Amino acid sequence: xxxxxxxxxxxxxxxxxxxxxxxxxxxxxxxxxxxxxxxxxxxxxxxxxxxxxxxxxxxxxxxxxxxxxxxxxxxxxxxxxxxxxxxxxxxxxxxxxxxxxxxxxxxxxxxxxxxxxxxxxxxxxxxxxxxxxxxxxxxxxxxxxxxxxxxxxxxxxxxxxxxxxxxxxxxxxxxxxxxxxxxxxxxxxxxxxxxxxxxxxxxxxxxxxxxxxxxxxxxxxxxxxxxxxxxxxxxxxxxxxxxxxxxxxxxxxxxxxxxxxxxxxxxxxxxxxxxxxxxxxxxxxxxxxxxxxxxxxxxxxxxxxxxxxxxxxxxxxxxxxxxxxxxxxxxxxxxxxxxxxxxxxxxxxxxxxxxxxxxxxxxxxxxxxxxxxxxxxxxxxxxxxxxxxxxxxxxxxxxxxxxxxxxxxxxxxxxxxxxxxxxxxxxxxxxxxxxxxxxxxxxxxxxxxxxxxxxxxxxxxxxxxxxxxxxxxxxxxxxxxxxxxxxxxxxxxxxxxxxxxxxxxxxxxxxxxxxxx
Length: 517
Hints:
Elements: H1 2-24, H2 28-40, H3 52-69, H4 73-78, H5 80-105, H6 111-121, H7 126-133, H8 140-169, H9 175-204, H10 210-230, H11 235-253, H12 256-290, H13 294-331, H14 346-354, H15 360-367, H16 376-393, H17 395-405, H18 412-432, H19 438-456, H20 471-489, H21 495-516
Helix pairs in contact: 1-2, 2-12, 2-16, 3-10, 3-11, 3-12, 3-15, 5-6, 5-8, 5-13, 6-8, 7-8, 8-11, 9-10, 9-11, 10-11, 12-15, 12-16, 12-21, 13-14, 13-16, 15-16, 18-19, 18-20, 18-21, 20-21
């Protein structure tokens, strides 16, 4: 009973902290990290244990699928150069920098352990940055670069993490013996994710009841991760390929009612997983902290503070010279002719370099280390310090920094959504144009009025009113959905505009169903 009471209390406290974060316009993981610290030092606080092997599957798989589901392949392709450099080079620079400094501070630390620490703290967190980016006027391209990075940098960092941990666990293994498995993991994971998605969609296509469908969504996510890990593939890359494949076909075969309900459940679960991650790591810190004497505590805290500084500086040292590096390559014609990258300005470089908050992936990776792993206590403490420090230092200053830089308005999503509304309502009108009935004429007049509003007010959405649930209206909505799917398929609009108009059509459809029941 006491455990249940603690769970309820902590979840309610997390909701209150999240509301406070929204009010102050800061990322809610900042307050969750602070709550985890308080929990660590509560004298009579709970002490729950979780098997380390479960950490990545439990915390990372659903969060990653939720992010990958909304990822635009068009935007990833358009921004492949900056995204790939952040995913590969920035993560590599951070990992190497942290490993070098860790070895300097702790000369007895094996290189594999130092590299594992670097990989743990290397990937920035998507949730923290997104919480701020949604509140401010930031150029669309920067948002897409940061979202693409946050999706893929987990894969690159955890691939290095996996090799480093494997070298520690299998003491006599050499790096060259891992190279073939890495190559197989990269290619095999993407192929496996695609195949898993195709098979899973065939199995679940007839499941339309919301509770059953949502349970199978989560079950499928965990199964894909577990199977991928068991056969030696990258769980992260497999989940990304799985989610993106499903995202391309799910809108056409999912009802509006099921989509609205499942989106709400997924958003709630991602929030709860963030709460649990910070809670559980906080609980792990209590016995570590209490078992150290004052001198060792000071050494551990100094170590963590220096690693935090290295993590922040490593990103800045790569991102800020990136624009100058591109200009040099372009000036000397060293880039292929078909590659014409947009050179970032100083203001954009500052923002990208400062969006380096760490979060749930860092916590889960640290927690997932085997219990006998060398320097595990120091790594856990350092990982939590890096997460807390980056969320406080960067998370609390990012929004004021963006506002101070005063970016110009750049909102292609609104333009694409306005174009999509025009196209989908014209398709709806065309679907009922030949019907001579009085009901069809009334509906045509209504849709022409909505079309006029959509064309004259780009920021306006599609209103959902109580409407008769007649076959004509259902036919028009179905035609509008087909037109919207085609716009996305041809990449006339991006995924952000697609999901925005899809949500508006869902509200209209649910209003029609509700009034007709």
